[in-house]
Amino acid sequence: MNSPVASRDWHALAAACRPDGRMLIDGVRQASAAGETFACISPIDGRTIAQVSRGQAADIDAAVSSARRAFDDGRWAHKPPAVRKKVLLRFAEKILAAKDELALLETLDMGKPIQHSLGVDVASAARCIAWYGEAVDKVYDEIAPTARSALALITREPMGVVGAIVPWNYPMIMSAWKLGPALAAGNSVVLKPSEKSPLTALRLAELAIEAGLPEGVFNVVPGYGHEAGEALALHMEVDAIGFTGSTRVGRKMLEYAGRSNLKRVYNELGGKSAFIVFDDYNDIARAACTVAGSMFFNQGESCNAPSRVLVHDSVADEFIATVAAEAPKYQPGDPLSGAAPMGALVDDGQLRTVLGYIDAGHSDGARLVAGGRQTRADTGGYFVEPTIFDGVTNQMKIAREEIFGPVMSVIRFKTEAEAIAIANDSPYGLQASVWSHQIDRAHRVARALHAGTVHVNQYDEDDITVPFGGFKQSGNGRDKSLHAFDKYTELKTTWLRIDGG
After folding, report:
1. What is the pTM of this model?
2. Is 488 exposed, middle or buried (0-12, 13-18, 19+ CB in 10 A)?
3. Catalytic residue among 303, 326, 402, 416
4. Which of 89, 242, 368, 371 is most buried, by CB atoms within 10 Å?
5. Which tens digits make up the pLDDT trace of 91-150?
6. Is 142 a catalytic residue?
7. What are phi and psi of 49, to 5 degrees?
8. What is the pLDDT of residue 2?
9. In 3-state terms, what secondary structure has residue 55?
10. Which residue in the list 106, 230, 268, 402 is annotated as catalytic?
């Protein structure tokens, strides 16, 4: 039986694809107030997929006004939890019903292989929306243990208008991580997708309305960060910002909050995750295959990619040889073929950034083991080989900075204390991994690592039920799980005096 990917002619579907690039405000597709657009370019071959509305301050103001009206009149916020649940479950069903269309848009827009868009991104987005729909009528408020003469109620109240700003690497998944808890809690949302991958966000908004979400509750304004993103973060009627992106822009989000209404800001930012392999771990092949699969997935354009690989010196040569043997399995291919293990980087700017880091690795004295070159340049797309450096020190640029491309840095260590020190010597603290058969060591090192998630003898296990986020400059707050409601609700205490008794 053919797989869903193999059974479709994705090239023919791509040739016929004519996506609507207009923004969606108050339930209506519309051009920007200024009538300006920008070209949405596919990183696969440089083709123009669509002209997309270039949202600016006036458009953000219109979207926020729509969201504010929708929140204040209670058309969504005042619906019983069971009603919001039904709408969100229908929304998830709509996403799955449109899976081929959404997967194609995701692949054309940001270059990832179509099998990943279909099997990972669409599926994960639908599951996230459905999970929060199911959760909304199962989260209880509290009664405080006060004296008998009073009753103190602790309730979760929706924030109001939430501004969601999402990156280009997982457009659907990152949108769902914001939309699920924000909508389930009763908020209205204005979503600003990245200008590099805006198309699935616009389609998601249409599907939400088809599912019964009232007009104005979910608005999408594409545009540039310095225009639409800044206007959204500065808007006085926005109560909270959920941002996923670079640490540099995350700092700006905090600044914008200070310059405006002190809105809540929740940043999910960069990472430089450490993958630590100790000499007592006896399945080097498994660890090497795991790190290759995790590092080169999504072209390395993942904030939690295990880009710093710390290996005990006594097993480093074997480990590096095994990883290098895995690298050819991840050579970039045609993302629409249904078989490519790795796709294109998102645009020419990211291609130049990644190649610049590879040059820096050479300049700083690291030893190139595999890859290191642009490939498939004849297609007009932006492809880079899976790249591995050995002989990296933790002070090199490729070990300090987030590359967001398929570049792995191997750092050797001799002692457990040295491994912990190197792993924690980073401004980031998103994820880490410990490979050891000694249970004491695994626990001890996991506890010592400054990271939001620590994996033991595996990497990248994922489920919507567990929180995602980091320490230090990897951000604050948590996406996923019930903890995400903390970002999109306010706690209210209501005291009632009980007379007599």
Report:
1. 0.96
2. buried
3. 303
4. 242
5. 999 999 999 999 999 999 999 999 999 999 999 999 999 999 999 999 999 999 999 999
6. no
7. -80, -40
8. 56
9. coil
10. 268
